[in-house]
Amino acid sequence: MNQERSAPIPAPDLTRDFPRSPRATIGGFVIAARTLDKCRAVVAGTQGEYHFDCPLDRQFLDFSGTDAEAMKRFVATGADDEAMDRWIREKSTVSDKEEIIAWNNKMRAMRPCDLEMKLQVFLEEYIPGNLPPEKPVYVWFDVYDIEEKRL
Fold this sequence. Notes:
The protein is mostly helical. Helix content is 51%, strand content 3%. It has a two-stranded antiparallel ribbon with strand order 1-2. A hairpin with a 2-residue loop joins β1 and β2. The longest helix has 14 residues, at 117-130. The protein is globular, with a radius of gyration of 16 Å. The protein starts with 24 loop residues before the first strand and ends with a helix.
């Protein structure tokens, strides 16, 4: 039996638009809203050059204990942001508010020099080759927000 969705998946078209900033939260976690946008786009086939379950997504998924494939299955039901917020809070293995706040603040403040060496090497060439020189990168999230013209 073929089940039909009651509403289309609310997926961004990442061939034309950007996912949300890694600073945006859902379920109480930074990075999660961006991860959700990319997941929705993958399910809808509108991801363009973006990748779901990439190293940035893994930061959120690993910390929260959220499974990428389970997230994709729930997204495929057409879940809106409110439903996804509840789902993330229910599925997360981290529920201590102070622990989540500390992790969010650590992620927001992470500088390129705080990243694993493989990412530092990548960013060493990526930043000068892809970002305007008049826009300094102070923290890792700046790379995304400058490139996607939020900063």
